[in-house]
Amino acid sequence: MQRLQQRLHESQWWTPGQLRVAQFRQLKTLLRHAASVVPFYRERLMQAGFRAGMVLDEEAWSRLPVLTRAELQAQGEKLRANVLPARHGRTHEIRTSGSTGQPVRIRSSDLAQTWFRAIGLREALWQGRDFSGRFAIIRKLDRTDEALPPDGDQAPRWGDQSTYPFSTGPAFRLSLMASVRQQADWLLRRDPHYLLTYPSNLAALAGHCRDAGIRPASLRQVLSIAELLPPETRALVREVWGVPIADVYSCKEIGYLALQCPLHEDRFHVQSETVLLEVVDEAGRLCAPGEVGRVVATPLFNFAMPLLRYAIGDYAQFGEACSCGRGLPVLARVQGRVRNMMIGPDGARYWPSFGSRRFRELAPVRQHQFVQKSFERLEARFTVERPLTPEEEQALRAHIQTKLPIPFQIDFVYLEEIPVSAAGKLENFMSEVAPPPAA
Ligand SMILES: [Zn+2]
């Protein structure tokens, strides 16, 4: 781990050109492996015109078709390597719960997991975290009988010795099965320096704490994972608890894709040492900085199940080089999933925000979710503390209307609880309108 950190410490300052050379060197090894021991790629690489000994440059690479999630689901077995180089260690299975309800099985290796942990530690170092502090985690856990409220569970360290090869403070865990009120009570009792959770849970928790006047005294920073972090949640957390958020961009199939810049909240650095991340247009060509396209990623160290140009399902855009001096490419914005995209009648795409920070000023709503039902109709789902008055409904509707990129008829629906996805996430916006075919 120390050796990997030393390498990462140096390579973050490499120029984009140096990073590219190192990536393509690793890519070549990965391709040779995939072509010889992965049945799916033996075929696909041959069809795409890849030959042993050919020059692998960006032009050649861009001829390789994107791997879709549907292909990954259908071809899972054929994507597994028949043999793994000995120094990659054992293989592991990672199950993604699949936020759309369709799980995917990924094979990973000891080596890929070691790199994963190394990037995790880099994140903590970038953020200048104090390892002697108390670390609190509220998340969905694999087992439903783990870390239950009111007390959750605890460990003497943040993680194992191979991830943190030095002493750390204690870690506390609480299952996401805890209610928001239970979470707030737990937070006060544990009084952590750091809190890790999902943005949707964070928004509910911080909202509750604002109303109840709760501030965990020692809290220094919040870590946000697994979902897109709305800017309003960042603002809410700063307002209520007075602390910043460190956000990471990751996906279960691949792991870390990009980390928030240590100096700038509004941008991410791609973790180019372990993943080749591309933003491509509908035709598969690379987008220019500022141009929104599909995120296509190739993990460079997972030889157990190579994913070459895998379309994660997000849209994003690259930004200009960062003033912090790191050569790692900048993702200026991650726009989210296809199903979280609003579609206009002319096919235009939007990732809307609904001005939810103001909701509580207008009406006693707890949670919200918007669903685009058609080009004309938007369903607004709320959980509320008490039935809203007609005036409150009117104020809320008028406020939401001003935030929408295109006009909608808004239908209010009140629910006991807003259902979360299979991955335990509350999605604030979903579209039931099919995107244009090319997307
Ligand atoms: Zn930077």
UniProtKB/TrEMBL annotation:
<protein>
    <submittedName>
        <fullName>Adenylyltransferase</fullName>
    </submittedName>
</protein>
<keyword id="KW-0808">Transferase</keyword>
<keyword id="KW-0548">Nucleotidyltransferase</keyword>
<dbReference type="InterPro" id="IPR053158">
    <property type="entry name" value="CapK_Type1_Caps_Biosynth"/>
</dbReference>
<dbReference type="InterPro" id="IPR042099">
    <property type="entry name" value="ANL_N_sf"/>
</dbReference>
<dbReference type="GO" id="GO:0016779">
    <property type="term" value="F:nucleotidyltransferase activity"/>
</dbReference>
